[in-house]
Structure formats: C-alpha cells, structure tokens
Model the fold of this input.
Amino acid sequence: MDRSLLRHDTKSTHRSFALVLAGGGVRGMAHAGVLHALEYYGWRPSAIVGVSMGAIVGATYALNPHWYEALVNMDTAFFPESTNAGNGDLRERVRALLASERAFREMILGWGAGSRSVKQGQALLSGLTLGKNLESGHIPVAAVATDLNSGERVVFEHGSAAEAIYASAALPAILPPLVRPGDGHMLVDGSFVDNAPIDIARDYDVDFVIAVDSSQINVKNGVRNGLQAMLRAFEVGHRAHTKLRFKQADYVLAPVFPISMDILSFQHKRLCIASGVRAVRCQREQLRMLLE
Done:
C-alpha cells in the first residue's frame, strides 16, 4: 500500500515528520506531553504510528479536537493497577494479597486481571476518539497489534478507531484480546511483534521519522509480586528488538521519568505527561535544527 497517498497537507512551514509512539503502559502517556510541547513550538506531525498506549494517544490526537484535555482527564479506572503486597500496614497488605489472588484467578481461568469486557474497553476508547474511524483524522494515524494466531503484525489504518486501539493495547492477562472470527485474528498488544514500527512511518513520504521511547530500563524499586514480575518480563522481552527499531528512526526522544514505575501505575499519569513535555523542551534546539 502506498501510504504517501494518505498524507494530509498540514500547511506547516517546517519539514515534514511522522511520529512513532511506542508502547509503555502508563509511561506512554508521555506521548501526550510530547505532542503538546511539539505543538507549542509549532511542529506538527504529518502522520502518527502508535503501539499500545502510543496508539491510544496518537488516535486521540488525530481524531479529537480537544485531545489534550481528553487524555489528561482520561478515566484510567478501566486499567487495573498492579498490586503491591509488600507496602502499607497489615490491612492494606491483606487487601493487596486478596486483590492479587483474584487477579491471578482471572488471569489463569479467564482473559485478564482487568476483569473487563472488550465492549467496555472500546466504549472508553470510543469516547476519546469521538466514535470516529481512523481515516477521519486530520492526519493519517496507524495502530499496530499482534495476531496471536499467526504471530504476525496487523496494521490498522481504516475502520473503527476504538476497535483498532483496543487491539493495539490489549495486554495479555490484563485485558481480553480482540477476537475477529471473520478473519481469524486474535489481536493483542502490538508491542510483542513491533514496538517501534519505523517502516510504516516512512511509508507516509515524510522528511523525517521521530520516535518516542517511553520505556524505563532500570526499575529501582524492584519487583515485589508475580503480576509485577510478569509485566516487567513483557517489557524486558522485547527491549532488544525495540532498540534495533529505534536505530532506524532519524531522531529518538526518550522522556526521563523522575521515579520508577511499572506499566500499570496509572496514578502517575500526569507525571508521565509532564516528562514528555520536558523531553521536548530539553531537546528543542536539536529538534529545531532537524525540522527548520
């Protein structure tokens, strides 16, 4: 497919660029801060390719005129928080242990610790994207998911935005996969197959590709329970491939987070957004040299 035909005229005076927004759980909310700061400096992307939380942020940006407010105020109650049975008083620790037991039971016997349906997830995401299709955005936006049946990468550029970004962000054992009997797909988080799809971004015929790395290599607080261990293993498992993909970008922004957090620490959402803003501010001169 010739994606250059999908590129919209953004009427910008700077060189054109596509953004690749990688997954990273709550840390992916840094993408909202990156986009907010880029717009402040007058640098608007010509296309966005997103994975997992990057797909949620990217689609909301492309489809919702009030995207920043929508993301800042996003109801994160849908996403389960990883429990920490090692902290707090006895009552809090017992409550955390019970929550961990329920989460484990739902992971093994059901589809996820979130205990939420696909319809509920899509309803939340439909609110962010105003019920629109991906092709309705003011710029092209793509979302990447992993097909558990074939092991292949699935790229969404058309159709329901809520469905596409749910599939891209459906982390196994946390949220149920998106099952599409008509085409044989069982879709989960796109980061398993490609967390930084630089090649898709280049197909939009832009001058540059800028990737945003929302990972956190070292977690100083350690891992305190099985759910946290599983989530951390997911991240570590695809880190090597993602590093190779980032090398294919023309520029990589890597927000620095002031505290250690796992991918489900949604209580730190605003902190992550601020980290994205700070990353652009700190590298604005390098970005200016690239884009102007």
Summary: The longest strand covers residues 141-147. Residues 33 and 276 are 4 Å apart (CA to CA).
